Amino acid sequence: MSAESQRPLQLLAVVAHPHDLTHMGGTCAHHVERGDNVIVTAITGGTTTHNEKLFDELRKPPAERDMSILTQPQDEYADAKAREFKEVCAVFGISDVRVLPFADNPLEVTDEVVTALSEILYDVRPQMILTHPPYALPSRRLHAAWPDDHTAAGIVVQKACQRAGIPDTEHGRAPHQVAALYYMAINFGFHEVDVCIDITDQVENRKKAENLFTSQGHTAEFSEKRIESLAGFLGWKVGLGYAETFIRGYVEISRHLSLTDENFRMAESSREEHMQWLTGNPV
Predict the structure, then answer these.
(1) Which pTM was predicted?
(2) What domains, with CATH codes, occur in the chain?
(3) What is the separation, in whole angstroms, between the first and last Cα of the chain?
(4) Percent of the chain scored above 70 by pLDDT?
(5) Three-state DSSP class for residue 68
């Protein structure tokens, strides 16, 4: 690895809703440990996303509904989620947390949204961005007639990167080019995955982060099951205890093919050691 790639990075994680950060929390924590400056931005506050109490209350007969839940201001729910968001980011060592004031369900890809994120790119000037893919697999299970908030967020990131890459003569700002772009590969087939990050050391933090989103109805049992099932499954596919997966947005350019320390260790490990990796107890 070159000296340039070893230097501390400006890493920007962009998500549609606050909770989305959890899917790459372990990866972000590793970058914090590496000495990188990690900044997290939610394009929306998730004001209408996963308000499970309201969802369940409206399913009841009108006479049985709790009016305190029905009349809770959306801003109050959004404020609670914003507090949880900051607490969750702190679990992964992240202190620079930003929430843009745009509506969710749907998140519209407007010039105003793109401009707001472009301003963050000019401010942060990240070398690396982690975000949602700006597309969905052509699967009957994922098919939608329009982009959801996550897809829309990925499109906003692409447009903001394009805008920040153009000289800003109005404000005299130098253009900025992002060197690496990675998309979370949560709902994609494993054949689409480019990179698996071993987050076995962060699994307890992943569970803690899930559990902090009480505004979404999360419980300790739910958090345990979700992380064991999702991060555990992704890890199992590559012989790890737990993993987070990504798709490259840009082609990797190098003078030679890469071999990570983790790939080398796995190839050299004994069967007993391999079993320990799978059970989340690497030697």
Answers:
(1) 0.91
(2) 3-252 (3.40.50.10320)
(3) 24
(4) 94
(5) helix
